[in-house]
Design brief:
- The chain contains 3 helices and no strands.
- It is mostly helical.
- Helices cover 84% and strands 0% of the residues.
- It is flat, with a radius of gyration of 21 Å.
- Keywords: Membrane, Transmembrane, Transmembrane helix.
Length: 75
């Protein structure tokens, strides 16, 4: 879909179109690699490998909320 928009855009110079398509391909490859990483984590028998990313997300979210509250109360 995005590739079609890039190809049909008459205002973009050909060099910019090539750059945009290369960046788009890199994004696609990156997302595929992330998906593979998640799949391998889920196939693992280790509790830690399955829960490392969710635990990190929870920790960062709680830390952010605490810092926002501390800043809001001028502590």
């Amino acid at each position: 879909m995005v590739k079609n928009l890039i190809h049909k855009d008459i205002d973009l110079p050909p060099q910019d179109k090539e750059t945009a398509l290369k960046l788009l391909e890199q994004d696609i490859v990156e997302m595929q690699e992330v998906s593979k990483r998640w799949e391998s984590d889920m196939k693992s028998d280790s509790w830690l490998s399955k829960n490392t990313r969710p635990i990190a997300l929870i920790f960062l979210t709680i830390s952010l909320v605490i810092f926002i509250l501390l800043d809001g109360f001028d502590i």
